[in-house]
From TrEMBL:
Gene3D superfamilies: CD59. Keywords: Cell membrane, Disulfide bond, Glycoprotein, GPI-anchor, Lipoprotein, Membrane, Signal. Belongs to the SPACA4/bouncer family. This is Sperm acrosome membrane-associated protein 4-like. It comes from Acanthochromis polyacanthus. The keyword Cell membrane applies. SUPFAM superfamilies: Snake toxin-like.
Amino acid sequence: MNRVVLQLVAVGICFAIGQALECYKCDIGFWKLCITTETTCSDGELCFSGEGKAAGFVDIKKKGCLPEAECNQTEQVNFPTSGNTTVYSITKTCCNTNLCNAGPGLPGTPGLILAISAVSALLVANF
């Protein structure tokens, strides 16, 4: 039994080391709505969550991958429209674990799912 557990842990570590960083991606969201998909970052990129305000009252959200050098900075974004320019600023905060840029909801859900999956696999292996 101990041998099987050790083998499962070793295989899990090998997969974790060889994988690129997975992040949630949302090109733009407003208020609390930010429809996400999953994306794989390139080398040198981290997951980010961006939050800002437009026109002083519209909450802007963004998520995705970002080069590490651009992390934890505030960016000014300009939208030219009919000669007027609407400006909003967005602060992008980075993290470095898979799917760490999740939105509000149940914190730790990806880790919880992984833990439940691991326990289930061990129980199935015993039978």
